[in-house]
């Protein structure tokens, strides 16, 4: 099958496809027993940096559910780690980093390290693309339908973890720094903008057919800060990718951005906007240019609950988007307690079209 035959890639390029292609954020993860089995073999960073393991983990949900998209198994915090920031994933706590609070801290980071440090990630993408499009593996079993997605965190969300040094609900140290030392914060965002664009171009060269920018905490910012730290750097990254690798779609996920999501979609140049659970997809359609595709947005907790309520809501989202370029997905990641059978039911419900 040629590239243009992949349903997800067609939608990412602006075409309406029925029924819509689907994949799920965090589709490779703790809810899968086969993921938990590999989890004991190595710590999280080692799993991301070992092509054998990262390739296998990426493919687990593709084997089970024949998803239309395979998203690279990695993390948004691999970029600061590759620049030299200390990073550890602590069981039960999440990521812990040596916080960046001064120009001296920022100067210690070295963007020149990124290509070497992320070489195993690129190797993983190249292997995945070979398998997904290859003749005698799961690629063939699924008719080569699966699109390979690369990703990065968007600068603001990555800066949240870099400055705070750990996860948070409010990221007060980060948002405080943006006001108290705007030049330092701008320099951090600028450094992330450049390194993120370079890393995504490298992911495309290694085999990614589209890339996604996760801006999970963009919704914490008021409009003026949202324009400065979310829209402007995202636009710069999208322009750089489009200039250097024309035609490769970028998916943007400005989580919790509310009404600012419309301005984001218009101003950044993303081909696809991923909407969170709280967004009204229909209302958003009216605010978007016709050539911007939508992705989303079933509540991950409805997937956890399963049953008729889930399949009905999934079909309602799907049917409301009929005729528009739409990628079916969740509004945020699969939660770890989700029964894998519910994912199977969801995939069947979205793919079954009535007479
Ligand atoms: C904010 C953020 C991070 N990472 C990511 C985001 C943006 C999306 C979102 O808002 O969820 C993105 C991400 N993280 C991971 C992927 C892989 C691809 C996928 O399956 O979606 C992607 C795309 C793997 C992961 N990243 C992480 C795990 C769990 C690691 C484990 O326990 O094995 C996985 C599968 C760890 C991680 N990584 C991060 C946190 C806060 C944590 C700890 C919380 C948690 O455990 O869920 C940072």
Automatic annotation (TrEMBL):
Binding, substrate: 26-30, 75, 161, 216, 332
Catalysed conversion reaction: uroporphyrinogen III + 4 H(+) = coproporphyrinogen III + 4 CO2
Site (Transition state stabilizer): 75
UniProt domain Uroporphyrinogen decarboxylase (URO-D): residue ranges: 21-30, 149-165
Pfam family, one: URO-D
CDD domains on file: URO-D (cd00717)
Alphabetic keyword roster: Cytoplasm, Decarboxylase, Lyase, Porphyrin biosynthesis
Entry-linked Gene3D superfamilies: 3.20.20.210
Localization (cell): Cytoplasm
Biological processes per GO annotation: protoporphyrinogen IX biosynthetic process from glutamate
NCBIfam families, per the entry: hemE
Subunit text: Homodimer.
UniProt function note: Catalyzes the decarboxylation of four acetate groups of uroporphyrinogen-III to yield coproporphyrinogen-III.
Protein's name in the database: Uroporphyrinogen decarboxylase
Species this chain originates from: Gluconacetobacter aggeris
């Amino acid at each position: 099958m040629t590239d243009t035959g992949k349903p997800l890639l067609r939608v990412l390029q602006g075409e309406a496809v029925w029924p819509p292609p689907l994949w799920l954020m965090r589709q490779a993860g703790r809810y899968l027993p086969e993921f938990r089995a590999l989890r004991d073999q190595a710590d999280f960073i080692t799993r991301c940096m070992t092509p054998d393991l990262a390739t296998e983990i990426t493919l687990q949900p593709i084997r089970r559910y024949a998803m239309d998209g395979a998203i690279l198994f990695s993390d948004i915090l691999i970029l600061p780690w590759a620049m030299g920031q200390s990073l550890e994933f602590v069981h039960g706590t999440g990521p812990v980093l040596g916080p960046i609070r001064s120009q001296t801290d920022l100067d210690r980071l070295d963007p020149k390290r990124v290509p070497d440090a992320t070489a195993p990630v690129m190797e993983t993408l190249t292997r995945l693309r070979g398998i997904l499009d290859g003749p005698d593996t799961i690629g063939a079993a699924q008719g080569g339908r699966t699109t390979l997605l690369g990703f990065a965190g968007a600068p603001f969300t990555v800066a949240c973890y870099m400055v705070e040094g750990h996860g948070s609900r409010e990221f007060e140290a980060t948002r405080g720094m943006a006001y108290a030392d705007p030049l330092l914060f701008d320099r951090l965002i600028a450094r992330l903008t450049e390194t993120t664009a370079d890393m995504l171009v490298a992911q495309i060269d290694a085999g990614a057919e589209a890339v996604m920018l996760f801006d999970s905490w963009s919704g914490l910012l008021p409009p003026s800060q949202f324009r400065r730290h979310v829209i402007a750097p995202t636009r710069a990254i999208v322009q750089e990718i489009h200039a250097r690798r024309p035609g490769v779609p970028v998916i943007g996920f400005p989580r919790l951005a509310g009404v600012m999501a419309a301005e984001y979609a218009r101003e950044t140049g993303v081909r696809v906007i991923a909407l969170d659970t709280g967004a009204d997809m229909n209302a958003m359609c009216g605010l978007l240019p016709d050539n911007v595709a939508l992705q989303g947005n079933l509540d991950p907790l409805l997937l956890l609950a399963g049953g008729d309520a889930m399949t009905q809501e999934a079909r309602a989202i799907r049917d409301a988007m009929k005729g528009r370029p739409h990628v079916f997905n969740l509004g945020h990641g699969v939660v770890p307690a989700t029964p894998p059978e519910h994912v199977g039911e969801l995939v069947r419900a979205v793919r079954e079209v009535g007479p």
